Amino acid sequence: MPIPGIIITPYMTVHLLTIGDEILIGQIVDTNSAWMSRALLLQGFIVSGKSSVGDTREGIVAGIEHAMASADIVIMTGGLGPTKDDITKKTLAELFGSGMSFHQETFDRITAFFARIGRETPPAMRDQATLPDQAELLPNKMGQAPGMWFERDGKVVISLPGVPFEMEYLMTHEVLPRLKARFPGQPVAHRTLATAGEGESNIARRIEAFEDALPPHIKLAYLPSLGQVRLRLTGVWEGAVELNAAERLSAELDAKKSELEALIPDLVYGYEEETLQQALGKILLAQGKQLGTAESCTGGYVAHLITTVPGASAYFPGTVVTYSYEMKTKLLGVKPDTLTQYGAVSEETVREMALGALDTLGVDVSIAISGIAGPDGGTPDKPVGTVWMAVSDGQRTITARHFFGRDRLKNIQLTGSYALNMARRFLLGQI
Amino acid sequence: MPIPGIIITPYMTVHLLTIGDEILIGQIVDTNSAWMSRALLLQGFIVSGKSSVGDTREGIVAGIEHAMASADIVIMTGGLGPTKDDITKKTLAELFGSGMSFHQETFDRITAFFARIGRETPPAMRDQATLPDQAELLPNKMGQAPGMWFERDGKVVISLPGVPFEMEYLMTHEVLPRLKARFPGQPVAHRTLATAGEGESNIARRIEAFEDALPPHIKLAYLPSLGQVRLRLTGVWEGAVELNAAERLSAELDAKKSELEALIPDLVYGYEEETLQQALGKILLAQGKQLGTAESCTGGYVAHLITTVPGASAYFPGTVVTYSYEMKTKLLGVKPDTLTQYGAVSEETVREMALGALDTLGVDVSIAISGIAGPDGGTPDKPVGTVWMAVSDGQRTITARHFFGRDRLKNIQLTGSYALNMARRFLLGQI
What we know:
Number of strands of chain A: 17
CATH class of the largest domain in chain A: Alpha Beta
Largest sheet of chain A: 6 strands, mixed
Oligomer: homodimer
CATH architecture of the largest domain in chain A: 3-Layer(aba) Sandwich
């Protein structure tokens, strides 16, 4: 079953081609492609494939030919820049039957750039400004190498530098506006629900009837991450584009989004790109409450998540990470008897940790966590992956036990997701 | 210009093929490919290309055909899992002329997994255990979908789940050992130095003469990450494979590694895959010392890094995250006057935080951090990205100020790397 969400339309397809050995040897992770895919999709261009080749003439020729055979538009990144743009530019010139010429305007921009940073223009920059005649140049205000736009047999091939902020600048200011003008397409709209607390297959069961009843021009995608699943509805306008097509499609998606949310209100924590820690922060701000954490096995990871949100200081004064028995007693007031009798990974201990954190951190609500992250340290009745967590406001203390897996980092991350969601639901009175 | 470090040899080439709309629509960044490229290269297999297709039958068929035409080995990831493995498995069965059968052993493993977490096996799991006959199955201890190994026309096609830790498990325990047995090649050896504290270009300047003098069969690759750079030497045996070729190559690389390390002894913190937090943990264990952290802008991230290391409890009792002025005073004894006079982001404050942490956490050595993570909150004399840190053992307190950038998460991560390295050098008496 394809993930619902792919759009099968007669629209323009894009193939993303990255040039460069640094991608093939795993030296860098390609984050450009994901950014470009999202930016293109939001404008109704569908990335139908991606590929990477090394920076040799043969690699680039094979890459471009394969890309042109499989999509209407090819966007290449990489292979441009002072130390390596020779091969890419010459290969492009050859493929598009073009000569190479010195381009004064580009050279002037490069010279101005070096003047601004108080340096002389290096001699190699004359080569940077020597470009294929047949290319329409896309001025790059963020760097030296301009983007290039070629056309052949009704297909468009665009070459961009691989430096992320140069690529993003050129995509936003040059490529996307030109593509939209060159290929006016159908309106496309998206709505995303962010959920936590259930796995993909359990959600699928609960929304099966909704999913089956979706009209063909609206697709649903499941986008899972640790402890969370995003549900994204994508609608594509069908038929002739009427004047108010975008608005009508938008309204239709809003209705479907509400319908979907009504099926799983207990799971939805936010919309679009919102994170669980942002959703929690919003609730704390709205309720005027302070939250703190008392962490053992997560070792500060939950506090880290909370403080990735700008402005978290408004509702988060701090955390105590108590890895040892002694710190649990000293900083959180956990009774030595409790630790001896029930162990550090127990309902009794997390309960006392949560209550102690209210006092130590002077907060309204606390999250306490103690577990066995692994890979070692499990016992028959408390296997690796056992995690106890508690949320308390002093009046009510809710506890939960989870059994995760054997992978230390994954256990820490899953615990983080579950703990934030538990606090969120506690504050909303859902638990 | 191809980057140094890539190996151009007549060896087996690998094409990485990712299946899944989630990559094409840019919902997830493909980190698997970089990991796989590195792991394969370490065993002497060269990734010659990468591509991504959507999870439709047509996409998968075109993707596999293109991949098989361009390399000896194809490794696919993604397109397996409870809601979407149908098409991938059926398409593979079709391409390799295979039927589909229920596989009891796989089903039993899935059932055992659900039993362990105290849940009933969902009915959909019978489909998960229905697999192509012609596939050699690669048992997946980390998840439900097994890996599959197909052969046709002397080429190998391997299909793996896309979940990173499942893929990594299967690559390490099944795929790489089988590939090495199936395609014994030229001896290849690697030595990696892990460094912290200097950027790529400054390191390059210091080791320029060494790099220029390397023989052609030994390459040096720079593998940078936030605040750190790994330097990897890769040697490939040239000519006929003699009986002791691997040992001789190994000895040659050991010599080069020592030569390189002698040029930058102040930067090297470890070897191969060792992390800074592991290196720090080893030193603490060896010196029998306890370490704690007092964190403001990093919000627990440094403690999280330290506790990603299994067994960290032997030297790490805990942390206090003091985001507010009040907590800095209450939990760490920072004088209110110091905060008022110098501000939370100051040498005076981190110094008091470090000393307070020694006492509060009962540790031998402490790390204290306070900074402006951003994106807001900067002032003309303390711009966003300003971070003060201190390391103290009560006798000596060393402080340092850094100016990072405007990106909140990047600032937190860079601070983590610098702080761990500072503590490491402090413990070794290097600062």
